Amino acid sequence: MASLKDIKQKIGGVKKTSQITSAMNMVAASKLRGAQLKMESFRDYAEKFNAAMGNLSGGMQSGQFPLMDAREVKTVELIVVTSDRGLCGSFNSHIISRALKLIAEKQKEGKEVSVVCVGKKGYAKLRHGGLVRKNYSDIMAKFEMYNARTIAQEVADNFLDGQADEVFLIYPQFVSVAVHKPAVMSFLPVQPVVEAETGGEKGEESATAYSYEPGSDEIMTVLQPLYLNVMVYHAMLEAGAGEHAARMTSMDNATKACGDIVHDLTLVYNKARQGSITSELMDIVGGAEALKG
Amino acid sequence: MAEKIQLEIVTPTGPVVSEMVDIVTAPGVDGDFGVLAGHAPLLSTIRIGTLVYRNDDQSHTVMVNGGFCEVSNNKITFLVESAEQGEEIDVDRAMRAQARAEKRLAEVQRQQDNIDTVRAETALHRALARLKAGSK
Question: B5-86: what fold?
Answer without folding.
Answer: ATP Synthase; domain 1 (2.60.15)
